[in-house]
Amino acid sequence: MLHVHAHPDDESSKGAASTARYVDEGVQVLVATCTGGERGSILNPKMDRPEVLENITEIRRKEMDAAREILGIRQEWLGWIDSGFPEGDPLPPLPEGCFAAQKVEDAAAPLVKLIREFRPQVVTTYDENGGYPHPDHVMCHTITVAAFEAAGDKDAYPELGEPWQPLKLYYHHTFHYERMKALHDGMVARGLESPYAERLQDWKPDPENERRITTRVECAQYFAVRDKALLAHATQIDPDGAWFAVPLEVHQEAWPTEDYELARSLVESELPEDDLFAGLR
Ligand SMILES: [Zn+2]
Fold it and tell me: Binding residues for Zn(2+), per the UniProt record (predicted)?
């Protein structure tokens, strides 16, 4: 299985518990990280020091090494430069040479090469909105869809190895309304303060988006591994922030799955699924 992610830390915040489950079952999992996270902010106040910011690329590589060990995966860098999250009105242009400013056929090339070498059956990435509107996440989606198709085409990128066609392509659906609401309700039911109260006030149920979810992978027993991998990205996650305000037991009871959308399949499987390898076993 190949997960394609935009930045170091995305592999630990999206699909990490199902990754840990599949690794435990003996599946070889490779994470391809499009960028080095060079333009990421420091999101943990305890790590917000000038010497950390100066060495952010090297530090994020070390964080990724630690997360990789925790998840038991292989990981490769695709070598693109983080585009940063554009802020302001009007939005500033993308920095020159960054990942999101590349031509799709160029940006997809290293991924096509990696798919042909690793030969995954299942590939995952974000949906067309990127999961959240970071230009690198949207670009990650675009190149993964392009590479999924091109890798098996003998006429595409003939210099990048023998064609290999992955069989299933999934999108992560991690931060969707139903899950947030279930976590919120789980907190309230226990008399705990929900970190999602404010967000849920102007976040309405989105049945159309929920309908996109085809596949729910039970992985509650691996949530602790997910938390550990995420904490390894110390510059990107505040251990005292909203993410960890919901206790593990509430996560396990309120929403024991990680959720995916089957976007493309070359095999037969019955929907809804509870396994990313349904139809391949
Ligand atoms: Zn990201």
Answer: 7, 10, 137
Domains and CATH numbers, the chain: 2-174+213-265 (3.40.50.10320)
Helices assigned H by DSSP within 36-134 = 50-54, 56-71, 104-118
Tell me how far the alpha carbon of residue 247 is from its chain's centroid: 22
Annotated binding site for Zn(2+): 7, 10, 137
Three-class SS state of 170: strand
Query: pLDDT, tens digit, for every residue of 82-110?
Result: 999 999 999 999 999 999 999 999 999 99
Ligand 1 centre to CA of 140 (Å) is 9
The token duo for 168 is 């299933």
Q: Note the pTM of the prediction, 2 decimals.
A: 0.97
Give the whole-angstrom CA distance, residue 183 versus residue 180.
5
